[in-house]
Write a structure and sequence with these properties.
This protein is an alpha+beta fold. The chain contains eight helices and 14 strands. The strands form three sheets. A six-stranded antiparallel beta barrel has the order 5-6-7-10-9-8. It has a four-stranded antiparallel sheet with strand order 11-12-13-14. It is globular.
Length: 272
C-alpha cells in the first residue's frame, strides 16, 4: 500500500452539541501511514508526542512494545496527568482521534485510555495503553478495529471521504460505533438530521450489533433508500441493559451521495 497523506487545516474539535467548531487554523501535512511504515518510523523505545484532536492537549510517550500496534506509556507523571485530563479524569477504553508527532512527521492515529498489562516507567501510569495506525490490529483479531479505523480517518481529515464510499451496512456500523465511542463528530457526519449529540451519547455506556443480515452489494447500487434489519444490545445509563430488534432507515439524495441515517426515527424507537 502506498503512503497516503492529506494537507488540511488541523481542526481541534470542540463538541458543543450543535456541531463542530474549528479551534486552530494552522496547516500541517497529516499522513495516514500504514502500520508497516509506522512500525519503522516509531521503533521500540522511541519517544514522541501525542496530540489529542478534540482538546488540543499534548503529552509525551515512549513506545515500549507491540508487534501489531504500538504499546506505549506516558513518559512522566506530568504526561500521565495530561492524558487523564483528556479522558475527563477517568480511564476509559474509548477510542480517540490523535496525531502522533515525531520530529517533522505528523501521523494520524487512534488511542484508547485504559492502563493495562505491564509498565516500566516511573510515570504514575499502571501499565501501558495502545495506539493504532492504519492497518494495525488488536491482540484478538487479524483485522482493524472499526472504531480505531474511524478515529484514524477522523484524525487524517478523511472521515467524510470514507463515508462517501461506504455501503449502507458500513454506514450503520460506523453510526453505531459513534454511539459506542460517544463521538459527536462521527454521529453528526452520518445523521440525516442535526442533533445535540453530547446529551444523547452521554446516556450510552456500551452498545454492540448482535445481528445485521447483509444483501449483495449489486442489489443496492441504484437504491436511494433502504431499511437495514438490525439487532442491538444497549447498556444505557440509569436504565441498564436493553435490546433493540428493528430496522435502521437510510437515505441518500442520489446514487453518488453518501448514505445518511434517519436519526429521528432511530432515536425515538430506542428512547434516546
Amino acid at each position: 500500500m502506498k503512503k497516503k497523506a492529506v494537507l488540511f487545516m488541523v481542526i481541534l474539535f470542540l463538541l458543543n452539541g450543535q456541531g463542530i467548531q474549528a479551534a486552530t487554523n494552522i496547516s500541517y501535512k497529516i499522513e495516514m501511514l500504514p502500520w508497516e511504515e509506522v512500525n519503522k518510523v516509531l521503533p521500540k523505545y522511541s519517544k514522541f508526542t501525542v496530540l489529542d484532536i478534540e482538546t488540543g492537549k499534548r503529552f509525551k510517550v515512549q513506545r515500549r512494545a507491540g508487534s501489531h500496534h504500538a504499546d506505549v506509556q506516558p513518559l512522566t507523571s506530568k504526561d500521565t496527568k495530561i492524558m487523564k485530563k483528556i479522558y475527563g479524569g477517568k480511564w476509559s477504553w474509548k477510542r480517540r482521534a490523535i496525531v502522533v508527532i515525531s520530529e517533522d512527521q505528523w501521523v494520524a492515529g487512534s488511542m484508547h485510555g485504559m492502563p493495562h498489562g505491564g509498565g516500566a516507567l516511573k510515570n504514575n501510569f499502571p501499565g501501558h495503553f495502545c495506539i493504532h495506525f492504519y492497518g494495525s490490529t488488536t491482540h484478538r483479531t487479524n483485522s482493524m478495529d472499526l472504531s480505531h479505523m474511524l478515529m484514524i480517518y477522523k484524525a487524517s481529515g478523511r472521515l467524510e471521504e470514507y463515508l462517501s464510499k461506504a455501503s449502507p451496512y458500513e454506514t450503520v456500523e460506523a453510526y453505531i460505533a459513534g454511539f459506542k465511542q460517544q463521538d459527536a463528530y462521527i454521529s453528526s457526519k452520518i445523521s440525516l438530521q442535526k442533533k445535540k449529540w453530547n446529551p444523547i451519547l452521554g446516556k450510552v455506556e456500551n452498545v454492540r450489533i448482535t445481528r445485521m443480515p447483509i444483501l449483495p452489494a449489486e442489489d443496492l447500487t441504484q437504491e436511494i433508500s433502504i431499511e437495514v434489519p438490525i439487532e442491538i444490545d444497549w447498556f444505557i445509563k440509569n436504565r441498564g441493559g436493553q435490546s433493540y430488534k428493528g430496522k435502521i432507515h437510510l437515505i441518500r439524495f442520489s446514487t453518488m451521495d453518501a448514505w445518511k441515517v434517519d436519526s429521528d426515527l432511530f432515536l425515538k424507537e430506542n428512547d434516546l
